[in-house]
Write a structure and sequence with these properties.
single chain; alpha/beta; Rossmann fold; 2 domains; 8-stranded mixed β-sheet; 8 strands; elongated
């Protein structure tokens, strides 16, 4: 299967790197073009990919065409490659934030093309991602299963209604930054009490990883797991109360609210 990428930003590269690391595809199966030649050509050469001279060349070569561009570029790019899309009829896979499949089809004059929308997160690069997928009515079962299988190699996948993509983007797409922020905050607290930053970060990151794994491995709710760690009158309860007094849960929810609002814009 030949896979094309229009755009070569952080998320596109995370997906490509994840697949290459997991041997899900070879570099020779990937065709790439981006607006910044000085950036994508060295990357393509380093990873053994095909660097294409234009977006149209990507479409002409690929069976799957990933749109990894900014929302503001969508109309221009689709109109640029429209003739090639209608002739070649590849499966179009969009990872463009805030752009639904109906909008894409409207730009393409309601053409009956196979379109899939995905929302991955950067952890796909280390095969620990979370990706939501949805499709239009023209996608064949075989093509759908192939795309899902590709993302299963680099993390977990979920089929999600398109009107839920905004909240998914916040909970899975943006939240790694929130979690990195939390890890850094824990590490800085460790530095406050005498640990060096590297050691404190290693401790904090390992604990977050283990806690996430335990959450996924049990049928208990996260709050039940909180209760298991808290002894009556103990240190953990004191810490939790102090964090909640400072607005921890409210801050997290407000962060999600702001992310969803920006996505909807």
């Amino acid at each position: 299967m030949k896979i094309g990428f229009i755009g070569a930003g952080n998320m596109g590269r995370a997906i490509i790197n994840g697949w290459l690391n997991q041997h899900a595809v070879t570099g020779g199966e990937i065709y790439l073009h981006s607006a910044h030649r000085s950036s994508y050509e060295p990357y393509a050469q380093a990873q053994g990919l095909h660097a294409c001279a234009s977006n149209e060349e990507v479409v002409n070569q690929a069976d799957l065409v990933f749109l990894a561009i900014k929302p503001a570029q969508l109309r221009t790019v689709l109109l640029e490659v429209k003739a090639s899309l209608l002739r070649k009829r590849p499966v179009i896979v969009s990872m463009i934030a805030g752009c639904d499949l109906a909008t894409m089809r409207k730009i393409l004059d309601q053409a009956e093309l196979e379109m899939i929308r995905i929302m991955p997160n950067v952890n796909v690069e280390i095969a620990a991602g979370m990706t939501a997928l949805t499709r239009n009515e023209f996608v064949t079962t075989d093509h759908w299963q192939r795309v899902v299988a590709l993302f299963d190699t680099i993390g977990a996948t979920i089929e999600l209604a398109e009107d839920k993509f905004s909240i998914f983007a916040a909970l899975a797409g943006s939240s790694p930054a929130f979690i990195y922020f939390f890890i850094d905050a824990l590490a800085r607290a460790g530095v406050k009490y005498g640990l060096d930053k590297v050691t404190a970060t290693q401790i904090a990151a390992q604990v977050v990883q283990g806690s996430a794994q335990k959450t996924l491995a049990t049928t208990k709710t996260p709050w039940e797991l909180v209760d298991e760690v808290c002894s009556p009158g103990g240190t953990t309860v004191a810490g939790l109360l102090a964090m909640e007094e400072a607005g921890f849960m409210t801050a997290v929810i407000k962060g999600i609210d702001a992310t969803v609002a920006r996505e909807n814009e």
